[in-house]
Write a structure and sequence with these properties.
Layout: H1 14-20, H2 24-36, E1 40-42, E2 49-54, E3 61-63, E4 69-70, H3 85-97, H4 104-111, H5 115-133, E5 142-150, E6 167-174, E7 179-183, H6 189-199, E8 205-208, E9 223-226, E10 236-238, E11 243-245, H7 248-265, H8 273-285, H9 290-300
Length: 301
């Protein structure tokens, strides 16, 4: 791969994007590369390794040996789409390069499509981000846990945890690593414990605030440290464990997420909250490799 490819370059500018993907044929060739390793591979029909040539004006490649048709976009969100592939790729690029997310109205303006189409593209890309994350892998090392309340308002426009319509979410941040966030029904001990056991490797070190519901973690074999925000304690070093306990990383994530909801999306319903959480945790987990993010999304097709 040349030095101008997104995987090799530390930055992937808009100019570089359109230089690499000037038209639908270039996008289709990239999907072909990701799915089949190029245009020369073993044909599923004749069983022979042969070169596949693209048909003019169609999103189809043909086996040079037997004439079998291969559609690179089959069984993907791009199958039968009437929106240009360049628009889909550019939308994925926007999702990878932003910090605060991309609204449907912004996609509508950038892509020149209807709002309905822009909204659908955005939701499909969020699903791709969820698929590309690899949620089966457990978080390990030192994990920060913190719950938050998103959305909703008190009567009179006041905000707060007691406001109706809020969605409860829980974040799990691996120190200098991956990030996960899930919607939860409540902050009871059994609920939080279930999320931790499902997502965190046994024996890991865990930082939380003083919420009583986290008290069961020590009994499950985790090295558990609490910071007492009520006493204005935000970090402390435990000499016996040799660890600094705090939840600053995950709290910083929630600060960015809430600010992004207010500024970019205005409001997110609880029904779609998990999609948006997956979008933001995907970027948080892959920060520092914007180009890698884009290739992960294309690979998730």
């Amino acid at each position: 791969m040349t030095s101008k490819s997104p995987s090799a370059s530390p930055e992937f500018s808009v100019r570089e994007f359109f230089a690499r993907f000037p038209n639908d044929d270039a996008c289709l060739a990239h999907i072909m590369e990701v799915r089949f390793g190029g245009t020369r591979f073993v044909c599923a029909s004749c069983g022979k390794e042969s070169t596949h040539h693209k048909l003019a004006a169609r999103r189809t490649y043909v086996c040079a040996n037997c004439g079998h048709h291969v559609n690179p976009t089959a069984n993907t969100i791009l199958h039968d789409t009437r929106t240009p592939l360049v628009s889909w790729f550019y939308a994925m690029y926007l999702f990878c390069t932003t910090r605060h997310g991309v609204s449907g109205k912004e996609l509508q303006r950038q892509l020149g499509v209807t709002y309905k189409t822009a909204y659908r593209i955005g939701q499909h890309i969020r699903d791709l981000m969820s698929k590309a994350q690899g949620f089966d892998a457990l978080l390990a090392g030192h994990i920060e846990l913190d719950e938050a309340y998103v959305g909703g308002r008190r009567s009179g426009g006041k905000r707060g945890r007691g406001a109706p319509g809020k969605t409860i979410v829980m974040g799990l941040a691996e120190r200098n690593g991956r990030m996960k966030a899930v919607v939860i029904p409540n902050v009871k001990a059994d609920t939080l414990r279930e999320v931790v056991l499902k997502n965190v490797e046994k024996g890991a070190t865990v930082s939380t605030d003083e919420l009583y519901s986290y008290g069961l973690l020590t009994g499950d074999g985790f090295k558990h440290g609490r910071v007492k925000h009520g006493a204005k304690e935000y970090a402390y070093y435990n000499y016996r464990a040799g660890e600094t306990f705090h939840v600053n990383t995950v709290e910083g994530f929630w600060k960015l997420f809430k600010a992004s909801v207010r500024s970019t999306h205005i409001q997110i319903s609880g029904k779609h909250m998990q999609r948006y959480l997956d979008e933001f945790t995907f970027r948080a987990s892959n920060r520092g490799r914007v180009n890698g993010m884009f290739d992960l999304l294309v690979g998730a097709l």
